[in-house]
Amino acid sequence: MTVSMKHRPPYVTLVKKGRIIAKATGILLNVLDSFAATYNFSYVLKLPDDDQWGSLQENGWWTGMVGEVHRREVEMALGPTSITEAREKAIDFTMPFDYEPWDILIPESIVTVDLTAYLFPFAGLGLGFMLVWPSLHIYTYVWSLVMVSTLVVGILAWVLSRIWGDRGILYPAKKSCKTYSFSLYVFDTFGCLVQQANKQPQTGPIRMLVAWWWVFCVVLVASYSSKLISSLTVRFTEPPVKSLKDLVESRKLLWTYLANSAMEEVFKFSAPDTLFGKVGQLHKDNPGLLVYSFEEGVTAVRSKKFAYFEDNSWLEFAVADDLALHGECRMTVVRDPFFYTRFGIILQQGSPYRDAFSYEILQLIQSGLMDAWKKQFWPQTFCTVNPYAQQPLRPLNLQDLFGTMLLMLGGSVLAILAFVGELLIIRYRLCLP
């Protein structure tokens, strides 16, 4: 029996010398050996002439391994090969021997410089204000409300001082409100936020107002300090995308997958207004973005411009090999299974082996041999992204404090400018007659 097969770890792992298969191992080779032992036949292995899996062309011609079986050039093809409606019209499949999700391979997580990281503790707390002014940055809402509150309390304290005048002054004793201007009330109110002493003259109503303002300031400062410490010391690695929907909507990366494959069929013939249709539309408009080998897809991911769609096991194999070679996760598998494919063994239409091989596959699954072989050949990798799980921690670095340092530098520059301004004013006053 002549068997056509493609290199596809962990199911089929080939060592090739030119177009000759020197050695073949993997889950499906164990299955094939089991077939041969049970039904007493020998086999010869070959590579598909065009090195493709097989897809239907516009002229009705089938490419790849599917085409070779369809034209009865070989009796069987091992892949594994995804079972699709179009393929089942041309060839026969055994019962599925495995189900596997399609996942996404993306570049390593990107560490970005966030100059507003010190504002992060209050991010997202002003959702009500967002409805009124949605164009503001998310960090701006709470901080704007704090500044507005400071101004309102300062104005209210000044108004109360003017209404009550010098009557009933309690603190500090016998100090007139009239000598305290509007700007000094506002500045003193702001001083509470930075934990400075409050020396404004206070009547009974003002003292009650300031007391509650101090409570507000203490709670605000304590909340900010605790959140800032936790957000700066516990930093998470943020992947470029977390799901297929995120990838399509954000367009942070372009995406690619194998041409002339079952995946291309699914995306190409999906309705344009669906998520799969939007995925396929990119390659209808730009067919040159598709790749023609797994190696090309991995190379596209390493360029940090593309995400690559493929069966989960193949992606994990690529990541595990890269991790073993370089000692770090340079690529990541996004565990967001958006489609499950069934794998079957390809046979000629009306093949007498179909029922016998399907029965043998069922026995291998029920006996636990298939699971044992999967554990033997399946790769293990920790370079993954789960969209519903907390992302891995990373150590604090200088980039996390860059915005805070810029803030300190800006304050230092303002202080120097204020110092120079004071010197110029003093010199000007000394020069006056």
UniProtKB/TrEMBL annotation:
GO terms for biological process: detection of stimulus involved in sensory perception. It is a multi-pass membrane protein. It is found in: Cell membrane. It comes from the Eukaryota. It holds the Pfam family Lig_chan. Belongs to the glutamate-gated ion channel (TC 1.A.10.1) family. This is Glutamate receptor ionotropic, delta-1. It comes from Portunus trituberculatus (Swimming crab). The gene is Grid1_10.
